[in-house]
């Protein structure tokens, strides 16, 4: 009999999460490269023999495919990318003559990748803790929402009215100014 999410105690959930994370780390460590990601990009570092130069490598970066390795040998990695990339904004370079560094610019910059190549082990994207992004990285609509939330949160902490409450108070003042004959002294506004 298998247990469902509801039947698992917080301690058991924590243990299962710890086991899943350890398994995920083990699977990722077995890959022939290391990778990191931000919402808009993926960066891979691939160890290559010391003394390797760019001309010794064959790297193919396509919209949905990646191949990288030493010329004349089996590729170190080859396969279908899990998501599409912007080929024109993706690059590769050799670092310290022993690391191939591949930068992939995501086509959809609002999603986390579960893996780089579709046949490689996946990570749990729900457990990703993104680094703090700058407001300037956000589109105007999202930025406006975030700024409003930050303002409202700051106002609440100071015991002051939120932006919505300020709007209501402003509308009430306008209405009172237009109708001086009405008495609002005992009115409760919510």
Defining key terms:
Immunoglobulin-like; single chain; 20% strand; elongated; 4-stranded antiparallel β-sheet; alpha+beta; 190 residues; 3-stranded antiparallel β-sheet
How are the elements arranged and paired?
Blueprint: H1 10-29, E1 34-37, E2 41-47, E3 57-61, E4 65-70, E5 77-80, E6 91-95, E7 99-105, H2 140-157, H3 163-178
Antiparallel strand pairs: 1-2, 2-7, 3-4, 4-5, 6-7
Could you describe the 3D structure shown?
Residues 28-117 form the CS domain. It is found in: Cytoplasm. Pfam families: CS. Keywords: Cytoplasm. The protein is an alpha+beta fold. The protein folds into three domains: 1-30; 31-128, Immunoglobulin-like, CATH 2.60.40; 132-190, no CATH class. 28% of the residues lie in helices and 20% in strands. The protein has helices at residues 10-29, 140-157, 163-178, and strands at 34-37, 41-47, 57-61, 65-70, 77-80, 91-95, 99-105. The two termini are 52 Å apart. The model has no long low-confidence stretch (mean pLDDT 87).
